[in-house]
Amino acid sequence: MTEFEAREPGAAYQMTVEERARSFPDGDIPGAEPRPAVQERAMRGMHHLIACHPGKRLILVSHREVLHLIFAAITDGTLGTGKSKLASGSASLVHFRDGEWEVEWYNGIGHLEVLT
Questions:
Q1: pLDDT > 90: what percent of the chain?
Q2: What share of the chain is helix, strand, coil (3-state, %, to 5)?
Q3: Structural domains in the chain, sorted by start
């Protein structure tokens, strides 16, 4: 679903983290999609999924920044960019019940430990 696509990077396209930091020290990247817009479209996608699949278990795989913005939205900023870490390949369990989001657990990596 396009709602869960990565943030448009604008002028930072194909730059490393270090190159972005050097080129845009204030974090203002020309042409980059604003984070609030990414969060809004991702949450629109979340609500679309639960409306189309009521009562079903779903798996969402997306980019870390998009997931951070989703977690920030559903926890009123308790989790998310700058507040919590999200390991690559981690799993989290989220419920939507009676119109409310609930994070049962976050950033689980136990399933990855068997691979090392």
A1: 88
A2: 40, 15, 45
A3: 2-87 (3.40.50.1240)
